[in-house]
Amino acid sequence: MDHATHSSAAIRQKLPRMTQIMGLTRWFSVVVVLSSLVGALLMFVIGASNTAEAVLQYLEMMPVLEGAADAAPVGKQASPRVAANLQLLESLDNGLTGLTFLYFAYGIYSLFLTNTNTVSAAPRWLKVENIASLKKTLMEVVAVLLAIMFVRVLAEKILLGDLHWELLTIPISITAIALGTRLMFSEGPVSSSIK
């Protein structure tokens, strides 16, 4: 009996130190935050570059890029307007991806690296309450990104005259993600067991 009392006292003495050590591991998330910020900046630069290329292509100050030229039917040159539209869809995709990285970086930062005073002072659009709200937002953004990608790919395939049934996998994926998000994060007894 005395041995059991001694070992439980030893566990109580070790628990705070172990808890402190585990608490320090939250700083590992700095790597994720910095990587996401770099990724966001890169996607914003790529998106801005795509927008500039679209404007130059539309004004016919820049030749149609390889991707847009490949999208033209055989024997036809892609018009500057079509090429600009495809570039702008690409820019939209890249910009939204950059915003996603930025939101993810701030979400991880606010959940793991700040105190509650800092989080409450953040703008409403940057507030991340918990991991579940971060996951929900990211899943919604993935569905939107897939929708933008589908429109861009569909436009390219229509220009090529190369539509196949396999292209339907993208809208099916979008629907699956939307339904999964709805089921996981709807209010009611289903969401409480999943969160």
Description:
The chain has 195 residues and is mostly helical. The chain has one domain (28-194). Helices cover 77% and strands 0% of the residues. It is built from eight helices and no strands. The chain is elongated and about 70 Å long. Mean pLDDT is 79; it is low at 67-76 and 190-195.
Number of domains: 1
Order of helices and strands: HHHHHHHH
Helix content: over 70%
Gyration radius, in Å? 24 Å
Q: Give the rounded overall mean pLDDT.
A: 79
Outline: elongated
Number of strands: 0
Our measurement of the CA-to-CA distance between the termini, rounded to an integer number of angstroms, reads: 41 Å
The helix count comes to 8
Please identify the structural class as seen in this structure.
Answer: mainly alpha
Strand content: under 5%
Question: In terms of per-residue confidence, which ranges show pLDDT below 50 for 5 or more consecutive residues?
Answer: 67-76, 190-195
Largest sheet: none
Quick summary of this structure?
With 195 residues, this protein is mainly alpha-helical. It has eight helices and no strands. The protein has one domain.
